[in-house]
Specification:
The protein is α+β, with helices and mostly antiparallel strands. It has 27 helices and 27 strands. The protein folds into 5 domains: about 1-35, no CATH class; about 35-60 and about 65-85 and about 130-150, no CATH class; about 160-290, Alpha Horseshoe (Serine Threonine Protein Phosphatase 5, Tetratricopeptide repeat), CATH 1.25.40; about 360-490, Dipeptide-binding Protein, Domain 1 (Dipeptide-binding Protein, domain 1); about 575-790, Dipeptide-binding Protein, domain 3 (Roll). An 8-stranded mixed sheet has the order 13-14-15-6-16-24-17-26. A hairpin with a 3-residue loop joins strand 13 and strand 14 (about 505-510). It starts with a helix and ends in a 9-residue tail after the last strand.
């Protein structure tokens, strides 16, 4: 402590002297200051700001910890260079010995040269290099130079961070350990020991993630370690085990393409590992098993087994050689759809029925035009049409040569007459209330003619004759009882029902003629997918060749791919929320207006569905008709969005109805648009005081029940129509054509709109009907019998192996008789 007092006294003397006197200090005094660090004295160590608490290395300023040979610890700013070069104390001692005065003295004899050796420039540089400049973090006097020989060790900030990271790693706090190593990387990328610790961190964290069930993150970390150090101990085994289990899981779930991709990713990581061989053999064995099974089958079953074998392992040569011939025998078109008809029959209750039923049943007229009325179009039962008595008497001659699929007989006048009368029976699934009200009598003067008498003239009569016709010798459901095969669906269209399951339906062509050179689809297999990503994934993988519906936000990417083409349906799809007026709350106009004002149509359309600004074909709806159609009122303003007004209207409705919190069920179909937007509708209405309970349903089931008159509260609906004026009642009221016993007319929430609809049904002239439709469109904005949402262009897509679909079509299978499909199966891109 005495020397410290001496230094303190000396420093005080410097402060008290005049500036000019400082320079008189001898060189020996300066050397004492410069060499003070070499003195073996006990000094108090200094810490970074914060007292004696352990510093947070991730947040503190960088520092080094210098320990002197006497045990003193100095906390200093980072020394330079980093790290300090190696210090050899013995070498420095020998260098100093060379400059000591000789034993005989440092003054030479007269006439002789002095033997004293003075240090040169190189020696002086070495002397300076043996000193380290230190800057203490605390204290009045902070800058010193210390000889290397007085330093016992230097704990660099980077080494402190690495040690801290090791502690966090042992505690399995991988995020903190990563932060420590990252700070070292940012300061000194090549610091000794950093790479080894980062490798260990990747291995430990990746292994822990695999054990915790987070396989994706674990494999990503281990792959990164493989890139850094492929021969890291136990890494190959970890990767092989993890990838192998994932590939095996994909194999068990039937996700063979995913399993092969996992195997492909594993091969370069562990090319000769036994797990790779085991997993590959599992795929090949399954493909071989399916190929052997196919060799014992014929027809569609043989083709399906070979296709499945190639989906398991596309490079299996035996299956790939047999596939072209098997496909040529039964050219198959696999179609991805939102829903399939449930059940299948001679009716149209849902969009799925409208797609499939025309393939199974021929209508009386194919189209509402003169060529069909004259019997010139193929694919219809009428050989012509004769209308007399102002359209109240119609004679339909039946086209000859059309047979039922059970080969029992040809289609006759009895079948058409049965179809007409079934539409008047309330218990029949084909019942139509408007038709039952209009028809007076049906007669069959002979097996080749049907005479129809009406109570009144119908608007656009030919449009009523586009419905399918079932067999008169079958039940209402179009099925005929057989002795050994149960009740079979009998049809007369270009295809017959082969099988029907919950998520798949198969149709076989009824024409026995087959041209191998022109592979027309002889089998259509519709496969239902629960959501849009699953359906699009199947199209990309090649599992299907035609996709019924493509969401609007996925069209640009799909259209830009050379292997696909995208088409558009001619009529837009009208989306709305139907309201059941049989619920007293929904008959309240204030509540309906509140529900409407709570929906930000434009924002939902742009951000959730389109992913781009609305355009002239995809825009928010202002009523029941598509923009620009003949019944669209041009002066109707867009429906507004005002959540504050919506909340006030809902509160007023609650007060008027004398009810508590409003809670309504919202049923919606399993279509991509509804799945995307319904959660946001629930949030929007919750903000204004209305609780919605979303209920997802299969579209065919939901629409069939609604059209049958079942009660509901709110229902999301989407449909396309070529005759919006004729279908206006069904648009505004789902059960418009249901039996009167269901009380469905009461479900029209607005009495004024119901009055206009009933007037429209009695109109037989087109100008009057158009005027009424425009009036309904105009008044619907305020009456809100439904909540219009938006109109969207619907699109479909197909692989280029399928020839025939056009870029614009009214129906998915329009012109299918001229389509061709080539044999093809997906091959892995690697």
């Amino acid at each position: 402590m005495k020397i410290h007092q001496n230094i303190k006294t000396w420093l005080e003397s410097i402060r008290n002297r005049r500036p000019g006197r400082v320079g008189s200090l001898g060189i020996s005094t300066l050397l004492v200051v410069l060499g003070m660090g070499s003195l073996p004295v006990a000094v108090r160590g200094q810490n970074p700001s914060g007292g004696g608490a352990k510093p947070d290395l991730l947040r503190s300023l960088p520092f080094d910890r210098v320990t002197l040979i006497d045990g003193s610890i100095l906390i200093v700013d980072p020394v330079s260079p980093r790290p300090l070069p190696a210090y050899d104390a013995e070498k420095e001692r020998k260098q100093k010995q060379a400059f000591r005065p000789p034993a005989e003295g440092n003054i030479g004899l007269p006439g002789s040269k002095s033997k004293v050796v003075m240090p040169g420039a190189e020696e002086k540089a070495a002397e300076i290099a043996s000193q380290v400049s230190l800057h203490l973090i605390e204290g009045e006097i902070r800058d010193f130079k210390v000889k290397r020989g007085s330093i016992k060790k230097v704990e660099y900030f980077e080494d402190l961070l690495l040690a801290e990271g090791d502690r966090w790693l042992l505690a399995r706090n991988y995020a903190k350990a990563f932060e420590c190593f990252l700070r070292v990387q940012s300061r000194e990328p090549g610091w000794v020991g950093l790479d080894d610790r980062v490798n260990r961190l990747l291995f430990e964290e990746g292994n822990a993630a695999l054990l915790d069930g987070d396989g994706e993150r674990g494999l990503r970390l281990l792959r990164e370690l493989f890139v850094r150090k492929p021969d890291y101990p136990e890494l190959a085994d970890k990767l092989a085990k993890a990838y192998g289990s994932r590939a095996d899981r994909a194999f068990q779930l039937g996700l063979h393409a995913l399993g092969r991709k996992i195997l492909h990713d594993l091969e370069p990581l562990a090319p000769h590992h036994p797990v790779v061989t085991e997993v590959r053999e599992r795929f090949i064995s399954r493909a071989r098993e399916l190929t052997d099974q196919a060799n014992r089958l014929n027809g569609p079953a043989r083709l399906d087994a070979l296709v499945e074998a190639l989906r398991v392992w596309p490079k299996f040569e035996e299956a790939s050689r047999a596939y072209p011939d098997a496909f040529a025998s039964v050219p198959t078109l696999d179609v991805g759809v939102i829903d399939i008809p449930r059940p299948v029959g001679p009716w149209i209750h849902a969009p799925a029925d409208a797609r499939v039923t025309p393939l199974l049943y021929l209508p009386i007229l194919t189209r509402d035009d003169d060529e069909s009325a004259e019997g010139k179009r193929p694919g219809q039962l009428a050989a012509g049409l004769e209308s007399t008595n102002l359209g109240r008497r119609i004679v339909i001659p039946v086209r000859q040569g059309v047979s039922w699929s059970d080969r029992s007989r040809s289609v006759s006048a009895n079948d058409i007459a049965r179809a007409f009368t079934d539409r008047t029976e309330p218990a029949s699934p084909q019942y139509n209330a408007r038709w039952a009200d209009a028809i007076e009598r049906v007669e069959t003067p002979d097996p080749t003619r049907v005479e129809l008498r009406l109570n009144r003239s119908l608007l656009k009569l030919n449009s009523w004759l586009l419905a399918p016709v079932g067999p008169a010798h079958g039940g209402w459901d179009g099925r005929v009882a057989t002795g050994d095969q149960g009740r079979l669906l009998v049809s007369d269209g270009p295809f017959a029902l082969a099988s029907s399951a919950a998520d798949e339906i198969q149709l076989l062509a009824t024409d026995p003629s087959h041209s191998p050179g022109r592979p027309k689809p002889r089998r259509i297999r519709e496969i239902r997918y629960a959501d849009a990503p699953s359906a699009l994934g199947a199209l990309v993988r090649g599992e299907i060749s035609l996709l019924e519906h493509v969401p609007a936000d996925r069209i640009p990417a799909l259209a830009a791919t050379p292997d696909f083409k995208v088409g558009r349906y001619s009529a837009p799809s009208m989306h709305r929320i139907a309201l059941d007026g049989r619920n007293p709350m929904l008959r309240n106009r204030a509540l309906r207006r509140g529900l409407s004002y709570a929906i930000n149509r434009r924002l939902l359309l742009e951000e959730t569905l389109l992913k781009h600004p609305p355009d002239e074909r995809n825009l928010a709806s202002d009523g029941p008709f598509a923009k620009g159609t003949i019944a669209d009122a041009p002066d109707v303003l867009p429906l507004g969005y005002d959540p504050l007004l919506a909340a006030m209207l809902v509160a007023a409705a609650r007060k008027e109805l004398e009810v508590g919190p409003i809670k309504l069920n919202l049923e919606y179909p399993s279509i991509p648009e509804a799945q995307a937007v319904v959660p946001k509708l629930v949030e929007a209405l919750k903000l204004v005081g209305v609780t919605l309970v979303p209920i997802e349903r299969r579209e065919s089931e939901l629409e069939s029940e609604l059209r049958a008159g079942r009660k509901f509260e709110l229902a999301y609906r989407a449909s396309r129509t070529d005759e919006p004026v004729l279908e206006l009642g069904a648009y505004l009221c789902p059960g418009y054509d249901a039996p009167s016993a269901a009380g469905t007319l009461a479900s029209v929430a607005s009495p004024r709109i119901l009055q206009l609809l009933l007037e429209l049904e009695r109109v037989s002239e087109w100008p009057s009907a158009r005027a009424l439709a425009i009036q309904i469109d105009r008044e619907s904005r305020d009456e809100l019998p439904v909540l219009p949402l938006w109109q969207l262009d619907d699109h479909y897509a197909w692989r280029t192996r399928l020839k025939g679909p056009t870029e614009a079509s009214g129906k998915l299978y329009e012109g299918i008789e001229s389509w061709e499909i080539e044999p093809w199966f997906a091959i892995d891109p690697w």
